[in-house]
Amino acid sequence: MNLFSHRTVSCVVVIFSRSVHTFSPSKPVPLSLSRDQFVESLLYSALSSDPPKSSAPEADQDPSATPSKVERCYQAWNDRNFDEAISCFSDDFSYDDGQYLGTITDKPTLKRSLERNAEVLPLGCKMVIDHIAVDAGSGNIGSCWHVERGDGTTVPLTRGCSFYTTDKTTGLIKTGFKVTEMVVKPNKSFSDNLVESASKFLQATEKFSSASETFSSSTQQQEQEPKSLIEKYFQAWNNRDMISAIDCFTDDATYQTEDPVFVDTFRGKDSLREHLLKNAATLPSSCQIILDDLAIDESNGTFGVKWHLELEGVGIPNLRGCSMYTTDKESGLLKSGYDVTESPVKAPEFVQDFFAPFTKLLF
Description:
Elements: H1 3-17, H2 35-47, H3 69-78, H4 82-86, E1 89-97, H5 107-119, E2 126-134, E3 141-148, E4 154-166, E5 173-180, H6 188-206, H7 217-220, H8 229-238, H9 242-246, E6 249-258, E7 263-267, H10 269-280, E8 287-297, E9 302-311, E10 314-327, E11 334-341, H11 352-362
């Protein structure tokens, strides 16, 4: 088999098996939703904006700490003060929503984007931060969040992760990347069967591949000595050393997956070990998770991660994402994680304008 066809097969396996390191905030949702449930879930998940911080202090946040520009932006959006929200961004910012095409680089467009997000949501609906990682050294900030109604109940299928870089002098946001969980959850048995079939085919085709494959510099960076626990975990995964990867977690860790094909929850090391070893045998060795940026919050014990997948040193389209990990204060090991991948199919952002009138009728 030539290189092109081998790469094609590998891409299929990667897309169907990438969830080895991913996390999900909710259980798989059956496709037999009522019309109103489906519309509600679709609208909120597809059209949600970056979240304002909850009024209640979070367990991993210091209530006395000065809010970051990211948190101020969230609160301004929650108050529907869009001018205040965009003032939290630097003049030369860039903002990428993983559900929509294109990158926003000017404030008028950003303001209109925030307005659209508010227009399709009912009054009193807000975004709430679940965990946040503020890296005092780099200025990077990671967050995971969800949407709440005015009565405090969570809107289905509206959790997500964001990652920001900020100016260390002014604190203003320089770049932002947001991803929201998948609306339609795949059936687990179907996904498992699909990966098993792809794995068998891959094993046969890899026999014809060269044993002396080389990778790009971005992949080679993973071989450097890891400086943090989260980097150690990802490096172990890339080396297919799943025993070392599992050792990064507490015995009662919760590990969740959320991507276009796999949605699952693993509780405890035994369940996690079975999943990681299965995926280690499924994925090609040339598939690597590349860490684009980190937010390491030592005081809160949280890690925010921005990443993408590469196959044979080449980035795979629409397989970028953000993750949030929390650690056990006593052992320092990972105790929970949540990961979201960008949407596999993206639409122009102006499609929100067409949904707004319908949401007014629903609420």
